[in-house]
Amino acid sequence: VPSAPVGPLEITNVTNNSADLSWKPSANDGGTPITGYIIEHRVDSRTFWTKAGTVNEKTTTFTVPNLTEDTSYHFRVFAVNAEGQSKPLESTDVTKPVRKIEKPSKPIGPLKTYDIEKTSISISWKAPEDDGGSPLTGYIIEKKEANRQYWNNVAKVAPSVTNYRVEDLRQNCEYDFRVTAINKIGHSDPLQTDASTMAKSSFTVPSCPTGPLDITDVQRTSISIKWKAPKDDGGSPIIAYNVEKKHTKAHIWSRVDQVDASTYEMCVKGLYEKNEYLFRVIAVNKIGQSSPLETDGATLARSPFG
C-alpha cells in the first residue's frame, strides 16, 4: 500500500457548513500507482469516522460539504492504490465551522406608506431575511423630497420596530423614503419606496348638501328653506351648515346664520316684502367648506294671502 499523503493537512476557507482541505501526494506509492484519495471527517465528541468524498490521484484538494455550524471536526485523508489504503494523514487541530459575520440583507419590501396627512406620513417594512450572522441593532430611516438629490436622516429605531411615522413634512410636497438595517458589521443596502408620496390630508371637504334646496314657506319678511345632508362628508364628519342669501340685484352673498350638523332647515327672517332673494347652503367639516347648494331661482318675499 502507499505511504500516507504528505502533510500537513491544511484547512482553509472554513464557512458555516464547509471547509477546504489540501495535502501533498504520498512520497511512496508502494510499487503500485496511486488511484485516488479518500477523505473522511469525525465529530470531536464521537469515535466513528464518516466518508466525505473521494478524488482522483491528480487531485490533492477537497471541499468537505454539509458540516454543522458550531460543531468541532477532525479530518483525515487516505491514499489508495490497487493494494489498498495507506495510513491516514490527520488534521492536528479541531476545526469548527462558523459563519462569517457580514452586513445584513436589506429589509423586506415593499416599503409601504399609509396614514398620509398634510405634514406626516407613516411607513412600514419587514425585517431582513438574513441578519448577516449577527443580531440587528436597529434601522435607519431617511427621507428626501422627490425633486432633491440628497437624503436626510429621520431617525434610528430599535430592531423590533418595523414601522414609523415621519413628521414635519411640507404640505403638498412629494417624498421618497428608505430604510437600512444595521448589525455590528455595518449597514444593509437600503429598501426604498417604489414611488414618491405627497404629504396631503387624507380627508377632503364634503360634497355640497343634497338638493334640491326647497322653499317650504313664504311670508312677507321671511322665507323658509330645507335641504338634505351631503352624500359624501369627505371622510370627516359634518360639523355645521352655513346659510347665505342674496338679493337678486346684489352682487355679494351675505351670511344669514350657521346651524349644527343635525339641522336641515331654516327660516330666513328680516327680508323686505316684494323683494326677490336667492339662497344657498354650504356644508362644513374640519377640512373646510363644500361647494354651495343654491335655490333653482329667485323667490319673492310676499304675503301668502296675496
Automatic annotation (TrEMBL):
Database matches in InterPro entries: FN3_dom, FN3_sf, Ig-like_fold
GO cellular component, one term: sarcomere
Superkingdom classification of source: Eukaryota
Protein keywords: Immunoglobulin domain
Gene3D superfamilies with a match to the protein in the record: Immunoglobulins
Domain Fibronectin type-III positions: 5-99, 107-202, 209-303
Keyword DNA-binding: no
Name of this chain's protein: Fibronectin type-III domain-containing protein
Organism this protein belongs to: Octopus bimaculoides
